[in-house]
């Protein structure tokens, strides 16, 4: 009946086992992989510019968002509503050249207006080359619009 | 059954308080009652508010750093309690940017680039491609085909009532967000910028402040104090616009400026505007 006793013993009693380590990870010898091989390819990110001139990056100059032009942007745009009513906001767009102020249209229409207004102001005498280019462009656009393209829908 | 329902509804004690202020004929046009040095102004507008109550605001002062409430002031709900239509505000801002924007980007065509009149090499016999001008768009240094041409205007006029409502809805949004303040006048005791900075800091008015006065000439002290600071600006009433109201954190109106704005906007909200609603013609402005 000895097997019964040992079975009962095995069932109720387990010996405590202590694992004694003789080889520790920290004491392992490292294998130096690819010893003597030098990596020729740069894999550390963007290429550093060590030689020659630095890239022509402009010096950072933060813009002033409260310069007078920006702080007072849009002033007098509602002058016909809030003012006495005799002035239209288009009349106060002083920063826009007069020949294009309050005008909308295609290039041909804008150039015709420019020629009409600046021709009398002496553009022809003061800037003869500009005047010649203007005339050539207008005649080119005239031929293009009238002879080579279909008439678009009327604006009004 | 019906009577039971009616009695149940009656038990709920739903009382309808008329929201409309009824003016009797013996009320003065601008009744100002002063108790505890507090002036309470009840205004009698030419166009009475019909469906909403007037908005009440404190009248503040600028002559001390600490805020003193000088009185109560009424603002017309059509102007200062309009629905917050951010789409209209956006349309107004886009319009303000576009009416003055002209693209000056420019390229020269093959006709405008200097030179290029001579045929660069003979048509045949060289084994090279045929070319007639060294300024053709194919050439380096040649003209640009279909490039931008200077003087591209983006001008358009926003419909008149969209601009009126842009002003009312922006003013209302500013008031609803506690960013609109009414002061008695723009008189400062000193022209020291530090005083103005301290006042704005103390009252939590945000870094940038737009002060609006009724007159063209603001008092000397406020101009001298705000001169060095770009984010504190003074504007006359007719210069007020949607873009500036949005760019500045706080809008400060004087009493007279608020009355003037109210008067102008109420006028246009009730006037016959067939002439203003006509399509824009440059020859007619």
TrEMBL record, chain A:
**Molecular function as annotated in GO:** structural constituent of ribosome
Tell where it localizes.
Mitochondrion
Q: Give one Pfam family.
A: MRP-L51
Q: Which GO terms describe its biological process?
A: translation
Determine the domain of life of the protein's source. Eukaryota
Q: Does the keyword Transit peptide apply?
A: yes
* UniProt GO cellular component terms: mitochondrial large ribosomal subunit
Q: Keywords assigned by UniProt? A: Mitochondrion, Ribonucleoprotein, Ribosomal protein, Transit peptide
According to its UniProt record, where is this protein mainly located?
Answer: mitochondrion
The text of the family note is:
Belongs to the mitochondrion-specific ribosomal protein mL51 family.
What is the protein named?
A: Large ribosomal subunit protein mL51
Question: Which organism is the protein's source?
Answer: Spodoptera frugiperda (Fall armyworm)
From TrEMBL, chain B:
- Asked if the Swiss-Prot or TrEMBL record annotates the protein with the keyword Ribosomal protein, the reply is yes
Q: Which domain of life is it from?
A: Eukaryota
Where does it primarily localize?
mitochondrion
Q: Where is this region: Disordered?
A: 113-132
UniProt GO molecular function? structural constituent of ribosome
In terms of Pfam families, this protein maps to: Ribosomal_L4 (PF00573)
Q: What InterPro entries does the entry give?
A: Ribosomal_uL4 (IPR002136), Ribosomal_uL4-like (IPR013005), Ribosomal_uL4_dom_sf (IPR023574)
**Compartment list:** Mitochondrion
Output the Gene3D superfamilies linked to this UniProt entry: 3.40.1370.10
Please give the family membership noted in the entry.
Answer: Belongs to the universal ribosomal protein uL4 family.
Q: Which NCBIfam families match?
A: rplD_bact
Q: What is this protein called?
A: Large ribosomal subunit protein uL4m
UniProt source species: Spodoptera frugiperda
